[in-house]
């Protein structure tokens, strides 16, 4: 299974945002400095997150970003989908009649990896930003 930096950084940035946005809008520059993520990369991610209505931007000198919903309503799955991240354990498509790796049949362990993928994706459907903020409350 591979989760790219795109998905990991989007979650990190949104957890950071969720920790601070109840005070004021949070600038991407502040998130960049706290999390060690390039500002240019954050701008690309937040453009996608804004299009999927996970965040909204606030203009002005005190501007920045705020969550568009409560942190408990934003599931990790929503974030991954917004930044085009797919969590897959096998390369082949589940719907495909073809087998794995271009073969005529599926590999011997295909069902195992399929089941693991389902567990992982269900885990991400259950976990919210609020869960991650609570897990990190002592780290401010």
Written account of the structure:
The structure is a single chain. The model has no long low-confidence stretch (mean pLDDT 87). A two-stranded antiparallel ribbon has the order 1-2. The chain has 140 residues and is mainly α. Helices cover 49% and strands 6% of the residues. It has a domain at 5-87 and 129-139: Winged helix-like DNA-binding domain superfamily/Winged helix DNA-binding domain (Arc Repressor Mutant, subunit A). It is built from six helices and two strands. Strand 1 and strand 2 form a beta hairpin. Helix 1 crosses helix 2 (28-35), helix 1 (5-20) packs across helix 3 and helix 1 packs across helix 6 (129-135).
The radius of gyration is: 18 Å
The name CATH uses for the topology of the domain at 5-87 and 129-139 is: Arc Repressor Mutant, subunit A
Query: What is the N-to-C order of secondary-structure elements (H for helix, E for strand)?
Result: HHHEEHHH
Strand content: 5-15%
Structural class: mainly alpha
For the record, what CATH class of the domain at 5-87 and 129-139 applies? Mainly Alpha
Mean pLDDT: 87
């Amino acid at each position: 299974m591979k989760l790219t930096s795109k998905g990991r950084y989007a979650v990190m940035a949104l957890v950071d945002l969720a920790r601070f946005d109840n005070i004021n809008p949070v600038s991407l520059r502040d998130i960049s400095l706290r999390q060690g993520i390039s500002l240019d990369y954050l701008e690309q991610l937040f453009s996608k997150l804004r299009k999927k209505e996970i965040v909204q931007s606030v203009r002005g000198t005190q501007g920045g970003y705020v969550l568009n919903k409560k942190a408990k309503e934003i599931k990790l799955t929503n974030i991954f989908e917004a930044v085009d991240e797919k969590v897959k354990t096998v390369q082949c498509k589940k719907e495909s009649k073809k087998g794995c790796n271009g073969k005529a049949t599926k590999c011997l362990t295909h069902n195992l990896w399929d089941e693991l993928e389902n567990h992982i994706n269900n885990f991400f459907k259950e976990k919210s930003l609020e869960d991650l903020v609570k897990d990190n409350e002592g780290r401010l």
